[in-house]
User: Which sequence fits this backbone?
DNA sequence: TCCATTACAGACCGACTGTCGGTCTAGAAA
DNA sequence: TTTCTAGACCGACAGTCGGTCTGTAATGGA
């Protein structure tokens, strides 16, 4: 049970790579199963043997992309002196990573509408959101019962900027604004 | 040339109302033109006479929803004492409005993927984003060349919370966190 | 050797979007 | 009054797409 398993895994990987490219280029709706079939020189039966449907294929693609991104951000944050520094470096790394169309289209634009917001959030919690929440907690700048909401706001804000930068190209300016944004947020709760 | 024009406008409105409800309930992909046809007791030809296609119909729906939301938020902000107060009241009103499924599904989830991010942004600029940017400028808490980016981050953050509240129901808690978030942001740029 | 399991093939189905030739009628023009 | 035009509306149809189903080949454990 080795040759068979390996062949199957290889096919799945091939399909995954092709689907990732197509989804990124043409979006979920603009990509037909037919296209994937054609490029992978596979039959319908084979594809549906490995993936339950178009949605499931998309979800597998999303999962793979998120995993890769997670590793790259972890790498970028490695040398950070403290929690706040890690948060800043992570944010910067994320914005730069998200210049890739693969991430923009698949993770930020199509995923919520294809999988539904709940499912998307669940996937994010295991990756980008989870990391950010951890980093934010480590800074101790936010009281515990606001942590969840803060992490949501922060991630959404940074995602938006990633998309913005991808269109306008004003990377430095946006990064400075995000730095400023983070500085204000981390300044600690003012007296009310 | 009056009866004819009126009849046409009435048909467009009828279709728009039905499409809005269906898009909100089943999402863009889950709503078929066939459904709209059936509920509006109209023929394919007639519908395609008034709207260029499914995308165009969706865009018309989005525009109508955004316009309504714009009015309601303007109403909510009316009595605000100063710019900061207006921003806070606007944010709160927006979060509460976004408890409607119509707004969540159509404006926040489906629009970016159906129309594409650029088109979506363009529509938003004429409505929610435009208002928020104006309000933020009026507070003078953000330097001019960061204004655009800040407005993006802020809107994205608030939108995210609107979706979060819609799922978890913890309105008060989320609103307090947003209040806190705004307070920190508006506290002014710290010395660097 | 036998057989269960897995990989793969491709015909087929129903549903969907968008097109196209055409009808009907209000109301302007003659 | 008669004629003509533009716009509202109709429904058959083509083409595409996602997904199903039956069947075949080959691997590897019993």
Assistant:
């Amino acid at each position: 049970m080795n040759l068979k398993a390996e062949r199957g895994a290889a096919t799945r990987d091939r399909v995954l790579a092709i689907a990732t490219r197509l989804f990124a280029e043409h979006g979920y709706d603009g990509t037909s199963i037919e296209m994937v079939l054609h490029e992978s020189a596979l039959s319908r039966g084979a594809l549906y043997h490995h993936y339950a449907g178009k949605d499931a294929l998309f979800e597998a693609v999303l999962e793979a992309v998120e995993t890769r991104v997670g590793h790259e951000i972890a790498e970028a944050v490695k040398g950070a002196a403290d929690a706040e520094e890690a948060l800043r470096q992570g944010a910067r790394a994320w914005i730069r990573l998200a210049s890739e169309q693969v991430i923009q289209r698949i993770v930020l634009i199509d995923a919520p509408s294809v999988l539904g917001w709940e499912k998307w959030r669940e996937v994010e919690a295991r990756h980008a959101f989870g990391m950010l929440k951890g980093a934010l907690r480590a800074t101790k700048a936010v009281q515990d019962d606001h942590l969840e909401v803060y992490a949501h706001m922060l991630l959404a804000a940074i995602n938006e900027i990633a998309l913005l930068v991808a269109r306008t190209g004003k990377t430095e300016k946006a990064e400075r604004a995000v730095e400023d944004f983070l500085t204000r947020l981390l300044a600690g709760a003012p007296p009310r």
